[in-house]
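Can't paste images in this forum, so I'm doing it all in text. The chain is below; anyone willing to post the predicted structure tokens underneath?
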Amino acid sequence: MFEIEPGQVYRHHSGRVYTVLYLANASVISDRFPITVVYIGANGNVWSRPLAQFLEKFELLHDGKSTV
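Text version of the structure:
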């Protein structure tokens, strides 16, 4: 399974870059309340998308882990 974690950096197909803040509804699997990725853009705007939609439109650029 593909694992999205806070701090990971993704590029949208439009070219804009976003950082994942957290996953909402991740503790319960339900069609009524799908897992949702909450992410922030460089301009400070916060966005959210259902996980399936996010995976279709974004590609991972950086895992957000320190390389030190």
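The mean pLDDT is 89. The chain has one helix and five strands.
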